Structure prediction request, 145 residues.
Amino acid sequence: MKRLPVPWRKDMTLELANRISKGTMVETLGIVITDISADSLRGEMRVSEHSCQPMGILHGGASVAFAETLASVAATAAVKENEFALGQEINANHLRPVPKGEKIFGETYAVHLGARSHVWCIDVVNAAGESVCISRITMAVVRKP
Prediction:
């Protein structure tokens, strides 16, 4: 799919992207936003006791939470100040396990930036660059009340 350039809001910084997650599930899972480029947003997360299943590997739900977080932060940073973005639908294909203690890395990029909806793709890889999870999310763009 073709990546679109993203009209990032000028107030979005890495510091702000990480600060707004304090005290949320994002912080509990250890998700950190690491880079914002012209057409993507990147982050990382260490697989910990908070994000693994009893077998000691990354929980699929944690992969989806990681993917949705990256896309949600990106979509929020791409809408107008009087709008916000809400997840409508997400899908994910889990491709390989990641053991507790290792990090995963994700990148999200827009493939549709409409007035009322966005579609973002999220690629999650391990430290060796191997695909762990491929996800896509549709975001509703709504006006703030």
